Write the structure tokens for this entry.
Amino acid sequence: MALETRHGVGGIDPHKHSATLAVVDGQGYLVDVASFQVTPAGIDGLLDFLTDIELVIDRIGVEGSAALGQPLALALSAAGYDVREVQPNRTAERRRRRRRAKTDIEDAEAIARETLADPHLPPAGKNAAPEAAWEELTAVHDWRDSLIMQRVRHLNEAEAVLVSLPLNIRSELPSTSRVLPRLETLATLADQWEELKAVDQVRLERLQAALADIRLLTGRIKTLDKKIPPLLAALGCTLTEICGIGPVTAMDLLVEVGDPCRFITEAQFARWCGSAPIALSSGEGHGPARRHRLDVGGNRDVNSILHIVHVTQVRCHEPARVYVARKISENKTKREARRAHKRQLANVIIRHMWKDEARRRSPQSPLPATC
């Protein structure tokens, strides 16, 4: 009598120098746990471990598959495994609910159990084989974000120093909540005040240095902004044709989404970015739910982009205005109408990205059905 084939899933908890793999079978029984170094030899050992185990591995969940787990996700995908992304908040909730300890073994097991429980987890990573232009765009995106955060920090610290200046100095500054105009005005009037206290003189010098740093950071940001359109053109991106999406927003979408063909349907993409609302129904019987709420488990960066595009289109794009007005006329609240429009925007964006990817790929490359 032939033995029945056993199936299972894996869960990987990656770190800087090591990764822990847990394997559970189809009934949720923990089969084995092992740790490997994040090196070429260590990854080869992980693949050998999966080959030798007496289970057919259906899926492997990786936490942080676009960050610390990226080398593992790429190697597993190249080896033919179905690799999925498991968000950290899902395993943290499971551990908190069950009052479990936090160790690499516990985390890997929790990731494996989440992978087993939800077969519709999003694909891991962002690109199975990242291109040079996409990697350069990612580097520009990360550097630009860092410069913006530094600029915001300087502005926030300058705000705290401005309110500590003497009243006779503050009265000469513009009556605005914006920090930069007050700093620029202060720089032009700095020589008019004499016999200041030593502490006030130090504060003025600090504000002048902050203004110089802010101007330097602004110049670097503008220089980086000039690199974005050529990189978008090299990737064949047409997202800027959508009302409300400029070069920076298109860059943010490309970096966050990666390969759009890893999403099979519009619904999968919408669930990944949190634009698909979750049913919130009680006492309505077995029919379709009539009330829904926001899905806070999706990619919040992409969801924020959808919100900005929605606000822009409602302000200056007539089809968006008509759509939102129609939803409100159907007894939807303004919040519900906004969610419905963001769901529609998610469809428009992923379809654009699918078409761009299909045009960019060579005719010899096999394309997924959605591309």
